[in-house]
Structures are given as C-alpha cells and as structure tokens.
Amino acid sequence: MGVADNGGTFSADRPRSRRSFLFIAGALAAGLIGIAADRVFARADGSAEKTVEVTDGDGNVHRFPLAVDGRHSITSSLGTNTIAIENGFVRMESADCPNHDCIDQAPLCDASGAIICIPHRLIVRVISTEEGRSDSAFA
Ligand SMILES: [Zn+2]
C-alpha cells in the first residue's frame, strides 16, 4: 500500500541523509581543528608571547601585548606619543614632538631594535616573555 511504500522510502532515505550530515559535521570539525592548529603554531612561534614595552620621559613603563591590534597614547610631562600595534608590528603613529623623527622610524616586530623619541625621552621596545623566563632561570 501507499503507506508501506512511503515508510520504505523513508527508511531507505535515512542512512543517506545521515551520511551527508556526518560529512558536513566532519568538514566543520576539520575547519575548527585547522583554526586551533593555527593558534597553536602562533603560540609556538612566540608571537603571542611578545610584549610592547614603552618607557616614557617620566620613567613610567607601559606594556601592551604585541598580538593584540590597537592604538595607545602615552602622555608624559614632556608630551604625547601614540603607538599603533598591527599584525604583530608596533610603530609610532603620531607624536607632538617638534621633529617627528620617531614617526619615521621602522616598525618593530622583535627585540632587535627600538623606536626612540628623543625630545620626549620615550623608548618603544618589543620584549619576549620567553626570553624573560629563561633569564630568570639562569639568575
Ligand atoms: Zn618624537
């Protein structure tokens, strides 16, 4: 009868739709694993452990994670500097110092250099938390 046929069709269809569901779920899971792997590699690379350290003209130290994009203004009694953190680099975006030499300096992504604003006696550096750890281990 019609009802029996429908039932048969329904039960025959079931495994097929279940397979496609599993396929989609598997594809989603693979995508999630890929994203998780990216994060693990970013950490292993050390980029997530780097910190931007700004020492201003008053001797205050400001720290920002290099992995988090953003803009930060640092004001001391000598003036204001604004740094921009983007894609793992930090650069001097603006400053109210007279010559703006600090804005022309190359962006930093590691501890190999520094951005210095001489009129404001401000220093921007990138420090690695991992290096700090090994240093304290040796001390
Ligand atoms: Zn400057």
Strand residue content: 25-35%
Global morphology: elongated
CATH topology of the largest domain: mini-chromosome maintenance (MCM) complex, domain 2
Q: Main beta sheet, described?
A: 4 strands, antiparallel
Q: How are the strands ordered across the major sheet?
A: 2-1-7-6
Order of helices and strands: HEEEEEHEEH
What is the CATH class name of the largest domain? Answer: Mainly Beta
How far apart lie the N and C ends? 86 Å
Give your account of this protein's structure.
There is one protein chain. It is built from three helices and seven strands. The protein is of the alpha+beta class. It has two domains: 45 residues; 90 residues, N-utilization substance G protein NusG, insert domain (mini-chromosome maintenance (MCM) complex, domain 2), CATH 2.60.320. A four-stranded antiparallel beta sheet has the order 2-1-7-6. The protein has a three-stranded antiparallel beta sheet with strand order 3-4-5.
